[in-house]
Amino acid sequence: MNRKQFLLLVTLACLAGSAGFWVWQSNHESWQTNGSAMGSKVLPGLAINDVARMTLQSGTNVLELVRQDNVWQVRQRSGYPANFQQLSDVLMKLSNLKIVQSQVVGPSQLGRFDLLPPGTNSDGGTLLSLQDSSGKNLAVLLLGKTHQHQSPAGASQGFGDGSWPDGRYVLPGQGSSVALVSDPLDSLQTAPDQWLDKDFLSITRPASVSIQLPDATNDWKLDRVSDTNDWVLASAQPGEKLDPAQVSSVTAPFSSSSFNDVAPLNAQGSDSLTNAVLTVKTFDGLLYVIHAGAVKDDNVPVSFEISATGTNAAEKLDGLKLYQHWVYLMPSYSVDEWLKSRRQLLVTQTNGVTADAASH
Description:
By secondary structure, the chain is α+β, with helices and mostly antiparallel strands. It has 6 helices and 19 strands. The protein has helices at about 5-35, 85-95, 245-250, 315-320, 330-335, 355-360; strands spanning about 55-60, 60-70, 70-75, 80, 100-105, 125-130, 135-150, 165-170, 175-180, 205-210, 220-225, 230-235, 260-265, 275-280, 285-290, 300-310, 325-330, 350, 355. A 9-stranded antiparallel β-sheet has the order 4-3-2-1-6-7-8-9-5. Strands 12-11-10-14-15-16-17-13 form an 8-stranded antiparallel β-sheet. A two-stranded antiparallel ribbon has the order 18-19.
């Protein structure tokens, strides 16, 4: 190859490189300049205080959160209260959501971003709609594929394959531009149990606790005369001694419990929950009768009947009425703490001698 041919090849290579850079820059700038402007809001003018209904649809799954009588409710759970703080955070996030990149995309290309209407096929997105109390749409947004952050080559792989979601492609209902936002919006799920208010009742100052089990020989009742007195086993037999470690769990039921899901109480009430009945009477004049069913899928269905045994407890009862209309699916490990048999509450005996005595 002579000098003239070499210079010609160098010139061609430079021209090809410049053309490739120009194409890349043009494509890149199309995300920056086409469609909506970078930094502008995805849902401008959204008045979050006017929102009275939020609907999410993904495939055939639909979630509806409705504000009724100033209380947000989960429609798919027969109106159980929704987590207001969670919903407020989502609405605030949506009102401040800004565009990182934007590009006008033809209808045939929307599937690349999972931005086809929900239920169309596997490329369907999640449709979010916000309405006011009259049913007027305040905002419609289609949520598509998440954007994955890629770690630089050679960087630590502490996140598995080196990538994690750092944004999401969205399509406003009245727009023609696919926008990329810097939030994956992963809290916008259609599962109803993810939106329930998980605040749960806590039974305080118990004065007596008793349980009825299918085998009556396992029943027990504990009493105490004040908050500071020790618990006493009712109808204790000779040699029966309470184990303080076991007693502490059954005398503080629901002090830090939660539930996984709810269902409305059926027409039969608590009659179908016959695995155990726990009764708790408090020094504050409240009576709790708690029915538990059989374990299913690691959950125990639990219902409550709450009444006031004194005039001073009537006001407290008003705040607890909600719990009487539902069956709560509680994790079995938490219910097991108070479903103990009589024998489990006692100090273990060896040859007629308690374990405590045998150790001395």
